[in-house]
């Protein structure tokens, strides 16, 4: 079976799944929450299975490009978790181990933002949406930065805008950022993970910091680069 064929692309189904992302996130992270664990049992295994199944549904309804991105996103995001969680200590999970659902969750977040950005409505209203996003994120980073003393979000929010400028202000990154903000708010509310109050022991950080969107956007740049390298290698092999 060719997992990278175009035959299974189902735009309506994948858009429905992208919208259902919000409900899925609340249910899946609620099951892994501190409250659920204390009141009932540690059900992280259920969340792991749900994340993998949801990833599978998105994958098999996606187009060829998104499938490639999702596949690479899983190991790439796990490496990112090791760096930012274990090595740099930006945040920590409710247990000592990185949950299995996390790298699949990153891919789900990315895919949902990608699907929204690729809709006819988003493409048709690209300029208006871009203006809205720029204003929204400026206000968001400024609000949490100055009102909540979230220097992390001011710093990495500025880097997020620099990245947007470099990528010609593509709305894709903003749609992904919205999904990131939602999952961060839900995950920290349920205490599935918690951001440390000081990043690098000097940068004040709220839980969660809105500036975290920069790392997803930066990960996308790296992700696309990896896909490009793999495609070029494949092309050279075919020529030979």
From TrEMBL:
Keyword Transmembrane helix belongs to the record: yes
Source organism, top-level taxon: Bacteria
Keywords: Membrane, Transmembrane, Transmembrane helix
Residues annotated as transmembrane: 46-66, 96-116, 131-164, 171-190, 210-230
Protein name: Uncharacterized protein
Species name: Flavobacterium paronense
């Amino acid at each position: 079976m060719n997992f990278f064929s175009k035959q299974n692309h189902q735009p309506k189904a994948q858009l429905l799944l992208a919208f259902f992302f919000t409900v899925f996130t609340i249910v899946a992270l609620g099951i892994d929450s501190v409250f659920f664990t204390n009141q009932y049992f540690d059900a992280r295994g259920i969340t792991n299975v749900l994340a993998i199944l949801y990833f599978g549904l998105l994958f098999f309804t996606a187009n060829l490009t998104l499938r490639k991105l999702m596949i690479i996103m899983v190991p790439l995001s796990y490496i990112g978790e090791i760096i930012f969680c274990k090595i740099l200590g930006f945040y920590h999970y409710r247990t000592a181990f990185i949950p299995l659902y996390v790298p699949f969750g990153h891919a789900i977040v990315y895919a949902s933002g990608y699907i929204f950005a690729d809709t006819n409505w988003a493409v048709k209203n690209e300029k208006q949406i871009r203006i809205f996003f720029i204003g929204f994120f400026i206000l968001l980073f400024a609000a949490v930065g100055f009102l909540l003393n979230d220097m992390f979000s001011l710093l990495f929010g500025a880097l997020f805008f620099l990245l947007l400028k470099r990528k010609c202000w593509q709305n894709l990154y903003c749609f992904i950022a919205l999904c990131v903000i939602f999952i961060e708010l839900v995950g920290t509310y349920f205490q599935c993970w918690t951001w440390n109050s000081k990043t690098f022991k000097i940068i004040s950080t709220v839980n969660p910091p809105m500036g975290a969107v920069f790392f997803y956007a930066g990960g996308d740049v790296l992700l696309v680069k990896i896909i490009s390298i793999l495609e070029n290698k494949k092309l050279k092999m075919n020529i030979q």
